[in-house]
# Entry
Amino acid sequence: NAGVTQTPKFRVLKTGQSMTLLCAQDMNHEYMYWYRQDPGMGLRLIHYSVGEGTTAKGEVPDGYNVSRLKKQNFLLGLESAAPSQTSVYFCASSYYGSGYTFGSGTRLTVV
Amino acid sequence: QQQVKQSPQSLIVQKGGISIINCAYENTAFDYFPWYQQFPGKGPALLIAIRPDVSEKKEGRFTISFNKSAKQFSLHIMDSQPGDSATYFCAASKGNYGQNFVFGPGTRLSVLP
# Structure
């Protein structure tokens, strides 16, 4: 039982490049989330999904897009990376009564 | 207000001591208050959580104290151990599974041997 798996774990991008972060969960959770974590700012919600085929904006959605084509997968895309997007990205999932389960994170550096 | 304030930003405690981290919230609609523990290079993991209908919840060496009138809650770690060294996040939410979680900025705890 893997829980929430994020790939890749580390990535370095040049400004303007694009990439996709993949999140997969095997707990049949309805809700999935993408957060970014920056020093002194805690966890900030980027986008979330309340079920397959649905997505919604969180607190800091600009510069990111997401897709939830399958219930178990939640993809986070950066179309044109900027240095301000250097951060650690966490995916999480939840179900009624379950609380949040987080992945182990993706450390992204944009140079 | 959706903010959750957390203090201190960092904390150093001797082995065997008591670690105390405090959080305060504004939104009276919040009804779920979890604490997450995060080790370096790992994602946050749920440590303990409380609902506002109780004033205290204890799980092993970890205790949450909740003061509804003051809109404050705190994490107490008794007999702190070096293995407790981690970053601790408080959070508040309406419900325990949706997108309405608001996280505090975190407290980095170091327990000295």
In short: The two ends of chain A are 36 Å apart (CA to CA). Chain A touches chain B through 27 residues (CB under 8 Å). The first strand of chain A starts at residue 4 and ends at 7.
